[in-house]
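Input sequence (160 aa), recorded before submission:
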Amino acid sequence: MTDGSIEELPYRPGVGIMLLDRAGRVFVARRIDMPSEAWQMPQGGIDKGERPREAARRELKEEIGTDKAEFLAESGDWLTYDFPPELRERFRQGRYLGQQQKWFAMRFTGQDSDIDLATQHPEFKAWKWVEPGELPNLIVPFKRQVYLDVLEEFRELLGT
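Predicted structure, C-alpha cell format:
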C-alpha cells in the first residue's frame, strides 16, 4: 500500500527532438500556454504501443506541422526532469513527477515555409532557428540540465 507521496509518482515517458537546419542551427518555439519568454525544442509523450522513434516523428508533425526530417542520432540514455511543485498539478493533473525522455537529433529537410504552427492542436505561438549554445539560456530553468545534457550528447553533430 502506498501513501500517495510525491516520491511515488512516475515519470511520463516522452521524446524530445533537436531539429537542426542545414546551417547547424536548432529549431525552438514559444509555448502558447506559458506567459514567459521561454523557448523549447519540440517534445511530447509516447503513446501506448508506440516506439520512441515513431513518437518523435509524430510529435514533429503534431507540433510544427511537418515531419520533413531525417534521423541523425538518438540519445544513449533517457533524460529526466521534475516538474516544479507549482506546475506539477497543471501538467498532467499531478499524475507525474516529471518527464523521462529519449532525445533524437534530426536534420530538417524541408523549407522554412513547411513549418506551420497552426496545427490541429496548436502548442506554439512563434518559432526561430538559434545557435546551439543559446539553448540553455532560452529554456525554463527546470529543463535546463536536460538541454545541457542534449547538447553534450549531440556535440559531434554540432561541431562544438
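Checked by second reader. The first strand starts at residue 11 and ends at 20.
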